[in-house]
Amino acid sequence: MLELKNISYSVKDENTGRMQDILKDVDLTFEEKGINVITGPNGSGKSTLIKLVMGFEKPTAGKVLFNGEDITGLGVTERAKRGFTIAFQQPVRFKGITVKKLLELASGRKMNTEDMCDCLSSVGLCARNYIDRAVDGTLSGGELKRIELAMAVAKGGEVFLLDEPEAGIDLWSFEDLVKIFDRLRDKTVIIVSHQQRILETADKIFLFDQDKITSAGRGDDLFALLTRRPALCWRNLKEN
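That's the ATP-binding cassette domain-containing protein sequence above. Prediction below.
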């Protein structure tokens, strides 16, 4: 179980010099299994929350607990060792490294073609066409995004943090993305997204607005609320 207890995060405003709240007194509990989707208006603190959970940033106040252990002071490496995996909104480019090497680094072991095919096909890519490709400017943003998601699948773990995983994914491949979530449903999956189709897959939805949670509940219940008030968060899939 992953718990956030009274989490606050503030930064100094460069213009005024005053501290500005990005998150304030956030209490969240993510169960050991299930798809959790965090949604809400831009600028409400969703991506910041993901960075705090992964250890890229430290909260101004509050605690992060994982299976009862206080991990607030642990960095990215230590959290990764405990089973935390992240996929960024904007994938990183690695000049001079191949897709095969990236997948092996992510998994921590040598991988055969069948293993790599399983990871890459889960995100709609053919291993034969990609394992020897360099992860550089010759790949499109959508290809890089899918490769990063394949790395997350290869690494495995207990907690998966996905910040707008649909970014750069074309409509044709979107159902492949949803299938990945189904494969991970026995883990703790936390997704930041505005997409209606992803919200439909959620076991639990958390609605953020103005640095705090304004609503939280079962996926079908919150989805019904958002259906009545779509301006709160989502983009239609056709806009992707």
